[in-house]
Amino acid sequence: MLLRIIGGIAAIAAVVGASVMLWPSKSAGGHVASCERRPLEVVIVGASYTAGVGPGNPAESWAGLLTRDLHANAVVYGVPGAGYVRQGYGHRGPVIAELEHIDLPSVDPELVIVQAGHNDIGVPLALERRQVTEAIDLIRDEAPRAKIALVTVFTKRSPSQAAYRTDHAIVSAATAADRGVIIMDPLTQGWRFGRVRDGLHPSVAGSHWLASTVEHALRTNDATSLSGTCAPASSQKRPRSA
Questions:
Q1: Average pLDDT of adjacent 10-residue blocks, the chain of 242 residues
Q2: Where are the domains of the chain?
Q3: Considering just the CA atoms, what is the radius of gyration of the chain in Å?
Q4: CATH number listed for the domain at residues 2-21+32-227
């Protein structure tokens, strides 16, 4: 598997490549031929959790671990401080800007995951809902075959009422924009995992827990099936490289 990190821990973009999986099948003439099953194409955008803040290594972020566990081809882009409204580090956000930077039509993902919410706590709720709706609409327009999944608000151990209001705004806007959206809600679902000394970001162990939890939610919602196409061995595509 190939992992390329651009920009370091402050704001990262990663391209993860997985090897092609092959299995034998019968051709129309009854002969056994090698056929190709391509990895899942995934895009993940988000904030500091996605950028690897906590573990201190973007490759150890929950997103990097998840794409390896799924054996997926993935583009991962994380901007600390970003949200659906907040621009974050280097003004590289918000979420819509991250998605536009990736250029969804060129990637043509089957799964898009957005991790955002904490940095928008205190943003006017009407603005938050509007920005969430616009992000969902952008994904729908530019990646029409993609399943959409959201990881919402992370907080420290004593969340504020403002955090709950922001979380509810994100969830309500997303589900209104796309009935099929997968919601993973750390705040209301009470996610507990190892954290570093700041009390907010995950430790290495916490990052592994997050990757496993997200993977379970995706599998439960049938969002991790590998795309399969069958072709003669001579016409098989090579794995995409970064």
A1: 40 46 38 62 95 91 94 93 96 96 94 98 98 98 97 94 98 97 97 96 97 96 65 40 36
A2: 2-21+32-227
A3: 18
A4: 3.40.50.1110
